[in-house]
Amino acid sequence: MRILITGAAGLIGSEVAVRLAARGHSIVALVHRDPHIIGNDRTPASTRPYGSQPPSPGEIATLTGTISASGLGLQAPPAVDLIIHSAAITAFDAAPALYEAVNIAGARHVSALAASAGVPLLHVSTAYVCGAADGVVSEKRIGHSFVNGYEASKAEAERLIAASGARHAIARPSIVVGDWASGQIRDFTNIYGLFRLIAAGLVPVLPAAPHATLDLVPIDHVATGIIAMAEGFAGVEGKTLHLVAEKPTPLAALAAAIAAVPGLGHVAFTANAPPLPRRIAAVAGLYTPYLLRSPAFDTSIASAHVPPCPSTDAAWLARLIGFCITDGFVAPRAERNLQRTSG
């Protein structure tokens, strides 16, 4: 199958591109500023510029364009059998104009291209388009009250795609973190920023609802799910699938996993947390709204089309934390003291 992937240099886009190429598909990787396709294991993929020759089976050809422009900024779109749209601004604190240009206008331009070419579109969204919803969240639900511009822009993108006339399916990952077997993650972004503050002992107490959870999902499950949807598009057309954890992670379990590592900071999640120092609150405040709810993402549709997520248990949390330490993203206190002494 010939597949165009937008956001192909991103965390999910790169991993999906690498895996699809390994399965024999011909990949056109749409890139903008960064032409490098690097999988989650941080191994650069073998690629070449698209040029005048489309990619052969198992090959990745990079094509420079921008989803912010009509027609993706291309003189002529490549001939493909499927578009996977994974390009997006995922930061929680981006400027509204950036969400509009990339997440919203980008969805409009990609779906218009898909509709005009008669090519199916697989859109990568987020489970958190449910907004501030709590409790069971169906795969058909889109919220109306959002905690940040990212959620709101992704919800609007879904509405645009549904109204575009393009044949489409929607994948909704939750909070994407490290590989299930190794804990490895290519880029330490988003929720990892909050973990770093906790590990450094800078946020010993955070505001949280009594039974709050975070739906942390291994990146390999998300990539596997997107590939299953791509290869089985006929079965998922018109459907929305939650690509989420086996079960949400209780905040208490997360706190226990961090506390189990000697030298890392401890955190208490409580409804009566005191205000954080201003310099810390600016960062931690981006994530604290996710500590105040416990959505349970239904997978009734997904379970019929994608493999089940492996167990997101305490052992997996330990692997996630272990990779952060071995990679140098965080350091237990004894190691930090040793580094300062030797420095």
Q: What percentage of residues falls in helices of 4 or more residues?
A: 25-40%
Beta percentage is 15-25%
Could you give the order of the helices and strands?
EHEEEEHEEHEEHEEEHHEEHEHEHH
Q: Major sheet: order of its strands? A: 3-4-2-1-5-6-8-13
Q: Measured on Cα atoms, how large is the radius of gyration?
A: 20 Å
The number of helices is 10
Instruction: State the end-to-end distance.
Output: 54 Å
Largest sheet report: 8 strands, parallel
Helix/strand structural class: alpha/beta
Mean pLDDT level: 94
Spans of 5+ residues with little confidence (pLDDT < 50)?
Answer: 335-342
Tell the overall outline: globular
Total E-strand runs: 16
Structure description:
It is built from 10 helices and 16 strands. It has 343 residues and is α/β, with parallel strands linked by helices. Helix 2 (96-117) links the parallel strand 5 (82-85) and strand 6. Helix 1 (11-22) packs across helix 5 (219-231), helix 2 runs parallel beside helix 3 (149-163) and helix 7 packs across helix 9 (314-326). Residues 335-342 have low confidence and may be disordered.
Outline of the structure:
The protein has 10 helices and 16 strands. The chain is an alpha/beta fold and 343 residues long.
Descriptive terms for the model:
single chain; alpha/beta; 33% helix; eight-stranded parallel sheet; two-stranded parallel sheet; 17% strand; disordered C terminus; 343 residues; globular
How is the secondary structure organized here?
Layout (H helix, E strand, L loop, with lengths): L1 E5 L4 H12 L3 E6 L15 E3 L10 E5 L17 E4 L10 H22 L3 E4 L10 E3 L11 H15 L4 E6 L1 E3 L13 H9 L5 E3 L5 E2 L1 E3 H13 L1 H4 L3 E4 L5 E2 H9 L8 E3 L7 H7 L10 E3 L16 H13 L6 H10 L1
Parallel strand pairs: 1-2, 1-5, 2-4, 3-4, 5-6, 6-8, 7-16, 8-13, 9-12, 10-15
Antiparallel strand pairs: 11-14
Helix pairs in contact: 1-5, 2-3, 7-9
